[in-house]
Input
Amino acid sequence: MKIVALILLAASLSGCAGQSAIGQKYNYAGASLTLPYTGAPLVVGVQDRRPYIVSHNKSPDFVGLQRAAVGIPYDIHTASGAPLADDMAKTLAGALRGATPVSIGSNLSRADAIRTLHADGKRAVLLTLNEWRSDAYVGATLHYDMEMEALGADGHTLASARIHGSEAVDDTAPHPTGYPGFNAPSAVPRHLEALFGRFHRR
Output
């Protein structure tokens, strides 16, 4: 009887933790930064090439995993409900002093993505997300792989930079639910600044 009671108690606790882990949303639309650009107006696009997005195993607003007490993973989505690529495109456009954000389909070829950006014949910035995913359990880790390209009006690459890796998410402020990882969006401005900064060092 004691064994049965312990099993039922564990299942109950797991269920409660799972309910808290389900439905977590991170705000990727609220990031703000200013990049040192003073040239002509740009067009900005972010293409989500994360394998699980391209294959449609995850929805475009997927940003990571929140694990319950027994390690069961639950999907985390953008708070806006918009694709992560669109939230990041708006952040990047705002940082580039009035650039125009353009939506780019995840399954477009690179050539078609560039053609989409150059519909108005302007210079453009293309950010490709090969990976962006936080994984939160006891702590939280962000896995990222991003490439930024500056494109001339003719579509040729003027400069490019790539960063990739994994890092612990800074959770100095407590999350209302008690789960770590909600500060993952704060990494967006820092990584965009790093990518843009590499343009100026070339």
